[in-house]
Amino acid sequence: MYLASLNAGKTGFSGTFQFLGSCSGTSNYSPSCIEQYAVAKEEISCSPGYTKSSVKCSVQNLVGVCRYQPNGDTTKVTTVVYAKPNDSNESAVANCQSYGSGAIFTETYLNPGDRTTSLDTILTNAYVCIDKAEKN
């Protein structure tokens, strides 16, 4: 028998995070856009193929978002925004899981500290967790 832990009602990340900027992918790039937050103001850098901006990612045609703390750094939160046509629900969930067990996927846009309550999220996380457990 496999045990599955759910993100049901999981809180967001505790702390006061300020928006540092975003990195928007060019057409066909997945994920579509990445927002970076931190406790202290700092300069952000974007991967090749992404354009740095001082505004938040567009949530038009939103598939979902993934929030995680890069390398377990509790002073930072990265919000990955998945949108059509670049991203699908399946690829978004799989990509979010690749960031580790602390990553929170939601189908609605949430700020770093917002609580997860979406039933879709609960079901998605349960499915992914059980699916991973069965493969192991």
Descriptive notes:
The chain is of the alpha+beta class and 136 residues long. The protein contains 2 helices and 6 strands; from the N terminus they run E-E-E-E-E-H-E-H. The protein has helices at residues 89-97, 119-135, and strands at 18-25, 33-38, 50-53, 62-68, 76-83, 104-106. It has a 6-stranded antiparallel β-sheet. Strand 1 (18-25) and strand 2 (33-38) form a beta hairpin. It is globular and about 35 Å long.
Secondary structure blueprint with pairings:
Elements: E1 18-25, E2 33-38, E3 50-53, E4 62-68, E5 76-83, H1 89-97, E6 104-106, H2 119-135
Antiparallel strand pairs: 1-2, 1-3, 2-5, 4-5, 4-6
Report the average pLDDT across residues.
84
Largest sheet properties: 6 strands, antiparallel
Which class best fits the helix and strand makeup?
alpha+beta
- How large is the count of helical segments? 2
Q: Low-confidence runs (pLDDT<50, min 5 residues)? A: 1-8
Helix content: 10-25%
Structure summary, number of beta strands:
6
> Terminal Cα separation, in Å?
12 Å
Order of helices and strands: EEEEEHEH
Query: Oligomerization state of this entry?
Result: single chain
**In which order are the strands of the major sheet placed?**
3-1-2-5-4-6
Radius of gyration: 15 Å
Strand content: 25-35%
Described by the principal axes of the CA atoms, the overall outline is: globular
